[in-house]
Prior knowledge:
The complex is a heterodimer of chains A (111) and B (253). Chain A has 111 residues and is α+β, with helices and mostly antiparallel strands. Chain A has helices spanning 17-28, 49-57, 80-86, 94-104, and strands at residues 2-9, 37-42, 64-68, 74-77. Chain A has one domain (2-79): Glutaredoxin (3-Layer(aba) Sandwich), CATH 3.40.30. Mean pLDDT of chain B is 85; it is low at 1-22 and 245-252. In chain B, strands 3-2-1-4-6-5 form a 6-stranded mixed β-sheet. In chain B, strand 2 (66-70), helix 5 (77-90) and strand 3 (94-97) form a beta-alpha-beta unit. Chain B has one domain (3-237): HUPs (Rossmann fold). Chain B is of the alpha/beta class and 253 residues long. The site of iron/sulfur cluster has 12 residues of chain B, from helix 8.
Amino acid sequence: MKITLVKKILADGSxxxxxxxxxxxxxxxxxxxxIDAVLVADERDPQSPGMLLAERxxxxxxxxxxxxxxxxxxxxxxxxxxxxxxxxxxxxxxxxQAAEILNDNPDLxxx
Amino acid sequence: xxxHKLVAPLLGLASSSTKSVNPMPIEPDNLLKQAFASHGRLAxxxxxxxxxVLIDMACQLSDAVEVFCLDTGRLHPETYRYIDQVRNHYGIxxxxxxxxxxxxxxxxxxxxxxxxxxxxHQQCCSVRKIAxxxxxxxxxxxxxxxxxxxxxxxxxxxxxxxxxxxxxxxERPLTKYNPLAQWRSADVWQYIRDHGVPYNPLHDQGYQSxxxxxxxxxxxxxxHERAGRWWWEAATQRECGLHGANLLPVKAL
Lengths: 111, 253
Ligand code: SF4
């Protein structure tokens, strides 16, 4: 199994906060070594490796994870806690899951 | 079969990961009627603001409207009084959902009471709103919100009915109704005036959108209502989308 993480650089050159959060969580939990490759999707450069991969997979959010099995089957995860649960076999706290739900559904902040 | 699947052809039903088409809007009261007829457990979300119109409509359709309100602990005193006014006016119970005490205490201990001004509002909103909402919705198979497309760029594509992929799961599907999706602010206020609906007095003080006290401010006549919420944050910080690539909506887990 190969795991690729795609992180984003915003159009103004600043790093994506959520990508930084996810990387920090992987690092603090000691699971960064489960990630085989980290690609950058630079919004200023459509040819950047992460942007090209996002286009090939038709993924419109970042960060995301691509899990490729030995048989070549590809699964994309755009929700970190699902990736953590299903691939890394770790559980994420309720409040972290809530934070990710809000991140992925910005319309909810008005609720 | 979940209701959203039954009405999908009629509504141009969209999921949260697809663009909404919604070619044939349904009048909010008709949609509420269909929602009540289709779900055994249906909850209505009330923010303490102008979405009170949904309570007004729902109370004319059902004697058993289950209303809840996210009590973040940071609402204006006027809003707390208004919630009670609505409770008494309609003779209904309103569930006030509180944040988890342990999570809240940990956040406040680590970051203080106003961390959202420096770190952004996500963590505080997650603890005070999203986590309690998620816990509550486990008990329902559908819920109703006052979300409207004109409220914010993040709501520009809100459909009238959608499968709720944020809080539902494949094992426990949840349908989300946004009956006011097509209405503009003026339509809501026309309804409030026409039907003598009680409204939050903060609206008379220039608050168009009402949320928590530290994160809400009155706006000027030509400002968009989004300018009254989290005004210190740049719009780009609130988005996870990838811009600049030729991408379709995500089909991922
Ligand atoms: S709106 Fe402000 S005070 Fe209320 S939950 Fe969100 S960040 Fe916290």
